[in-house]
Write a structure and sequence with these properties.
Layout (H helix, E strand, L loop, with lengths): L4 E10 L2 E11 L4 E5 L6 H8 L7 E6 L2 E2 L5 H8 L2 E4 L11 H12 L4 H14 L15 H13 L5 E5 L7 H18 L2 E6 L2 H6 L3 E6 L2 E7 H5 L4 H8 L14 H12 L27 H13 L5 H10 L2 H7 L18 H4 L19 H5 L13
Parallel strand pairs: 3-8, 3-9, 6-7, 7-8
Antiparallel strand pairs: 1-2, 1-4, 4-5, 9-10
Helix pairs in contact: 3-4, 3-5, 4-5
The structure holds adenosine-5'-diphosphate and magnesium ion (MG).
């Protein structure tokens, strides 16, 4: 099973420029998580901080018991071996063919024989759909193939954690969907913890188990996918729908005059530039038939059902809707009477969604609605004994 990553109060600045502060989240072991955020919010800086390429100012990032913010160079070297990273551009060596690119970490970091290396390289190329392309140079193949080659290279050291920086960048929507499928299939096969940072909405809606968003130097939420997908936070809503109307502007912040001008345009019938309303929980991608069931998905279900009562009503409804009838019986929950007609979005009476949870497990839901960072952060806490070994 992949490693758990526990981030607590992480803060990063470059000189006097603060990038983000007080980021707290847990990547549950073997689950797929995604972090959304407008360009320039520090998503790449976050990934680079996790692998020690950048040093955060304060806070913790604990992986298998090692806090990489404080640890020695030697410990960092060990922790780095747990990671496979897919950088934004694939970061392949242009003068090496795919075989040598993928073999590179093995030749650099292990003492494996060339025949052993060959076995591993061909296996990873097959997993990423690149069998037969091993002799090609990066410049001779498509962007989608370069991404997959970058992923194959990220896999050769059997990572417990896979980080992907905008795996969709430069890919068309169809190739992006194939790449999402590949990530889910990989997760089913190797049970690694996966974090994808992206601003691709389709990918964020269909790929991850957990979803978060960085905005204005803060992690505004992180937790089960259904929480963000049903959120009524203006910034989340704007982002998911790709509209001009809302708190996110062309530059980092939008002032009130700009907001008012855009509202006036909208009132006068100008289109907001985004999609129709895509809020709500859509089905998550499943592994390709024939592959094993995702262990992370089963663990996530148990974990999320334990904290179900702490989640906002619309998220609860989305979660219960997405369970099979058998699962609903197993967890003792029932569909809400009004659910099923449309996905998420609505706010139902929480009592109805809590099914037959024992009374002591049913928390009072806040009466003033959801959306503050603190409330949502609590959703990524893993009950004792559920989170695997640290
Ligand atoms: N090595 C660096 N030195 C100084 N500033 C940096 C460095 N790397 C990134 N930044 C700044 O950090 C901010 C966030 O960058 P980045 O993480 O690349 O955003 P994103 O990946 O979300 O688009 C940007 O303002 C960028 O200029
Ligand atoms: Mg980036």
């Amino acid at each position: 099973m992949g490693a758990e990553v526990v981030v607590e109060g992480l803060t990063k600045s470059f000189g006097s420029q603060n990038i983000w502060r007080d980021v707290t989240l847990t990547l549950p072991p073997g689950e797929v998580s995604a972090m959304l955020g407008p360009s320039g919010t520090g998503k790449s800086v976050f990934l680079k901080s996790m692998i020690g390429l950048l040093k955060p100012d304060s806070g913790k990032c604990v992986i298998n018991g090692t806090d990489i913010v404080q640890c020695s160079e030697r410990d960092m070297y060990e922790v780095r071996k747990l990671f496979g990273v897919l950088f934004q551009d694939g970061a392949l060596f242009g003068s090496m063919n795919l075989y040598d690119n993928v073999a590179f970490p093995l030749r650099e970091h292990t003492k494996k024989s060339e025949s052993e290396i060959k076995r591993i390289v061909l296996e990873k190329l097959e997993m990423t759909g690149l069998s037969g392309a091993e002799g090609k140079l990066p410049g001779e193949i498509s962007g989608g193939m370069r991404k997959r080659a970058g992923l194959a290279r990220a896999l050769v050291l059997d990572p417990e954690i896979i980080l992907c920086d905008e795996p969709d960048s430069g890919l068309d929507p169809v190739r992006t969907a194939y790449l999402s499928q590949l990530l889910i299939d990989l997760n089913a096969q190797i049970d690694a913890t996966i974090l994808v940072v992206t601003h691709n909405i389709n990918l964020a809606r269909t790929l991850p188990d957990n979803l978060g968003m960085l905005f204005r130097k803060e992690l505004i939420m992180f937790g089960p996918r259904e929480v963000l997908l049903t959120s009524e936070e203006p910034v989340v809503e704007q982002f998911l729908n790709g509209k001009r109307l809302g708190p996110i502007g062309m530059s980092e912040e939008k002032d009130t005059a700009q907001m008012a001008a855009e509202q006036a345009m909208a009132d006068a019938g100008h289109h907001h530039g985004g999609t129709e309303d895509v809020r709500g929980v859509v089905p998550q991608i499943l592994p390709t038939p024939g592959l094993p069931e995702r262990k992370g998905e089963r663990r996530r279900k148990d974990r999320v059902m334990q904290i179900l009562h702490t989640l906002p009503p619309a998220a609860q409804e989305g979660i219960i809707e997405s369970l099979s009838e058998q699962d609903r019986q197993h967890y003792g929950v029932q569909r809400h009477a009004s659910a099923g007609a449309q996905h998420g979005g609505g706010s139902s009476a929480p009592q109805a969604s809590q099914g037959q949870l024992p009374a002591d497990q049913v928390a009072q839901l806040p009466s003033h609605g959801w959306g503050t960072a603190d409330q949502l952060r609590s959703t990524d806490e893993i009950p004792p004994g559920q989170g695997g070994a640290r």
